[in-house]
Amino acid sequence: MARLDDLLAMLPPVRREAPCVRRVFARAAECDANGGGWRLVRAPGRVNLIGEHTDYNGLPVMPMAINREITALFRPLPRGQVSLLSADGFRPRVFHASRAIDTYRKGDWGNYAKAAVQKLTSEFGLDSPSGLEAVIGGDIPGGAGLSSSSALVVAMALAFAAVNNLEIEPSRLADLMADGEQYVGTRGGGMDQAACLLGEQDRALRMDFRPLRIQPVPLPEGAEVIIANSLVVAEKSAEAKARYNLRSAECAMACALLGTHYGSEYPLLAHFHAAFEDPAAALEGVIEPRPMKPEEIAGRLAMTMGEFDQHFLDLGKGESLKVPGTGFQPYARARHVLTETRRVEKAQQALTAGDIAEVGALMNASHASCRDDHEVSCSELEALTRAARESGAAGARLTGAGFGGCIVALARSEDVSSVLDGIRRRYYEDWAARERPELLEQMQGSVSDNLFTSRPQTGARVLG
Ligand code: GLA
Q1: Positions of CATH 1.20.1440.340 in the chain
Q2: Ligand 1 center–CA 211 separation, angstroms
């Protein structure tokens, strides 16, 4: 347990200077009348280079941890009390650690801490856990597809584990938190927590699931990753969540339809993928390449409508997915996931070979497939990826769940400043100013807070 000054000195100089880190330390110093004894936790956001909407199908992704993170100072509190102070202006939160914690209302930042604490308390059967006091801040743009929520969950999990002397392997903690985050009502595929915990310096992570496996893939020298926020806040809206869950349901419908044709069960597209040499080709001619009404899919699967609803649309707690007016698109969704998996494999080879042009081309193809087959793009992401390419990026694509949030672009080092410049002019100063001025008015921070480069970073850690 170190003094605040000693903890600050443990951070790399660029983090020491970050305004959010300054705020965290200043806020903690104000609480210091109660004595020192702080420890520090850092948990980075992530950007996904390629492999979008594949993880919940059990198929690979290629994220990396980024240089924007949650920073929290924490120390134990007796009787399981968890007391959270935000250095970013969110309301203070106090609750008690237990195996079943009531949620705050939807969207409350405290729910992410509750998710972590409840999961660890129940998983480890803690009867009288230590609580904690924490001062938390961060500079991961929120609702931008950079996993700010998972970073908060991971930071709180590491802090709570530390005050309770729980030693948990990072990959196990990633699985636990992927599960634990369901507490806030989203069922992600596991990429976000794993990228936050297992990030490696200068390496992207080829990640496979069930069980989680990581192959570090060096980012070629001379390549830079650019992240740009469309400023459309995606993940927080209920509609984006529903559309995300719908994609997962449509993939499950595709699995069921493929199963009836091939006479096998494919619980996930990963199982179908494993059964064929050329899975994208095996899809052709089996599911019609057009929207399908629920009655037609149910009929093909010999299910009653009640069974269909329960199997594909039920979200639990009395909620269920709405049937889109245009019908479901199992063919297009499966085609995206299967072709995207091939692109992840090729991108791993191209990165390893240092072939920046090829990685860029694969990123562009991934974006097109996300837009046309998975339908998770929007006009802002189109304008932003176009701006990046027209400014000289080797490739650009939406990253994360889509429907808004960020793009990721790859550029040669010598082109970086002109690409950043070009994106600033073409998107923020021109397109968005003309088409969506309200996005700029509501923007958190400056353009530079929303348009930046990052090398791959080390994963989340407790210091001190
Ligand atoms: C969200 C989820 C991830 C993943 C991406 C899409 O970020 O949390 O698990 O599914 O969307 O690739």
Answers
A1: 238-332
A2: 17
Higher pLDDT, 106 or 163: 163
The ligand 1 atom at the shortest distance from the C-alpha of residue 401 is: 11
Q: What is the CATH number of domain 238-332?
A: 1.20.1440.340
C-alpha 399 to ligand 1 mean position (Å): 9
- Bond before 211 cis per omega within 30 degrees: yes
With bands split at pLDDT 50, 70 and 90, how would you rate the model's confidence at 258? Answer: very high
pLDDT for residue 319 = 86
> In the predicted model, is pLDDT for residue 156 greater than 90?
yes
Give the rounded distance of the alpha carbon of 379 from its chain centre: 21
What pLDDT band is residue 67 in, cutting at 50, 70 and 90?
very high
Q: Where in the chain is the domain with CATH 3.30.230.10?
A: 4-219+457-463
Say how many Å lie between the CA of residue 435 and the centre of ligand 1: 28
* Identity of the amino acid at 223: A
d(CA 248, CA 254): 10
**Atom in ligand 1 nearest the alpha carbon of residue 145:** 7
Return the best residue to mutate from 55, 66, 374 for the ligand 1 pocket (most ligand atoms within 8 A of CB): 55
Describe the strand order of the beta sheet including 395-398 as a list of residue ranges. 395-398, 406-412, 223-229, 451-454
Whether residue 235 has pLDDT greater than 70? no
Query: Catalytic residues, which ones?
Result: 192
Euclidean distance between CA atoms 256 and 191, whole angstroms = 24
HSE toward the beta carbon, residue 446, CA cutoff 13 A: 2
Q: Which atom of ligand 1 is least distant from the CA of 54?
A: 12
> Which tens digits make up the pLDDT trace of 271-323?
999 999 999 999 999 999 999 999 999 999 999 999 999 999 998 878 899 99
d(CA 56, ligand 1 centre) in Å: 8
Pocket of ligand 1 (CB under 6 A): 48, 52-53, 55-56, 188-192, 400-401
CATH class of 4-219+457-463: alpha beta
